[in-house]
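C-alpha cells help. One example:
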Amino acid sequence: MPVVASLMLFLQDRWDEEQRDTALFHELDCPDPPRAGRVSCCGCPCPAQICDRLADHRRIVRDCEQRIRREQSSGAHWSVDSIRAFQIMKAFALPYELHPGWRDTWYP
C-alpha cells in the first residue's frame, strides 16, 4: 500500500500545482480575477477547462484508490481489478515523469 499512497500523493501534489497555475491563463477582462493565495476556477475558458480536467482526474484516481483499499481490506491482494486501477493511476502520473519526485516503478 505505501506504493499506492506515494503515487496518490505525487499525483495530488502535481494537480494542486496545475490548479494554482490556472491563474496564469485568466483573460484580461475576467469578471473574477485571481487573488493572491486563492486557488479557484473562474469563467475564463482555459482555466475552466483545466479545472474540469483536474476534477475528472481526481475523481477517477480517487475511485481507483478506493477500489485498491477495499480489495486489500477484504483480504484480496492485487486482484485483476486492483492491478487495473493501479495501472490507471500510473498512466495519470506518466506526463510528470521528468519531475524530480517521479519514481521509475510508476511506469505503466
DSSP finds three helices and no strands in the chain.
